[in-house]
Amino acid sequence: MSLGEFLQGARESAGLSIDELAERTSIRAGLLREIEKDNFVHCGGDTYARGHLRNIAAVISVDAQTLIDLYNNEHSSEVRKIHDMLVENNVTRIPTERKTVSWKSLAIASIVLLAVIAGGQIIISNSKTTVSPATISSPTPSTTPSSAATDEESPSAAPSQGSDVVPSASGDLNLTISATRGNSNIDVVIGGASLYKGPLFQGETKSFTAPNSISIYLSNAGDLDLTLNGEKIAPLGARNEEIRKTFRSK
Question: Which strands, in side-by-side order, build the sheet including 163-165?
Fold first, then answer.
């Protein structure tokens, strides 16, 4: 039970109304109502509040010290613990140092991250260049074509010896390259000279004729179809795979 509730109960037990208590204690009725609601703001401070409580105690037959003790425990600012006051003013709180991130540390971290990303891209790019075997079909006197082994190598290595191909009726090698499924860069070398070096866009076809040999470079072998002396060649590589190949007449 709070002090205000205690005062209200004691007043009612004494058979007094607020107005009667106000008349006998010379305390305004409005202030008495506030006191019974535990509001001592308008009392004028602890000293006046305790004086009002002593006057009220004498009228309602209550021990004045009992009221004073309740007031001190619940409302007095003078008997509040020093520690509580210090806590309210943040005095007892342990100061914490606000940590900041150095811009130099951020810059170094950014450089390291960029280096890691660049290294990963280089490794991925190098892993895409692979060497895989391919076969071509060459005509024979019978109606059944036979497959001949082909030699391939990575773009950075020297051209291989290539494959021997039965020449056409004219004795030449006739090669047709069609960008059927995508774009590619090609380089066609005949007699040690580059006959064509550049892009071959999807839907385009280029044909080349050589008396002895044809060397080719394909940047996207999987999207190209090759025909040699009228016979379609099996794909020389996978999509985005770089291939070098040399064809020689027998």
Answer: 163-165, 243-249, 213-218, 184-190, 193-200
d(CA 53, CA 35): 9
Contacts of 26 (CB under 8 A, 6+ apart): 55
Architecture of domain 3-88: Orthogonal Bundle (1.10)
Per-residue pLDDT, 172: 86
Nearest C-alpha neighbor of 238 from the set 171, 199, 181, 160: 181
* Residue 153 pLDDT class (50, 70, 90 cuts): very low
User: Which stretch of 37-51, 118-132, 203-217, 218-232 has the lowest confidence by average pLDDT?
Assistant: 118-132
Average pLDDT, the chain: 80
Check pLDDT > 70 for residue 131.
no
DSSP 8-state code for residue 153: B
Place of tokens 């037959």: 61
Crossing angle between the packed helical segments 64-74 and 3-13, to the nearest 10 degrees: 150
For the purposes of burial, counting CB atoms within 10 Å of the CB of 60, is it exposed (0-12), middle (13-18) or buried (19 or more)? buried
Residue 165: per-residue pLDDT? 62
Residues of the chain with CATH 1.10.260.40: 3-88
- Quote the pLDDT of residue 144: 39
In angstroms, the CA 49 to CA 219 distance is 97
Distances (CA, A) of 209 to 21, 87, 221, 222: 126, 95, 20, 23
Contact between residue 211 and residue 247 where contact means Cβ atoms under 8 Å apart:
no
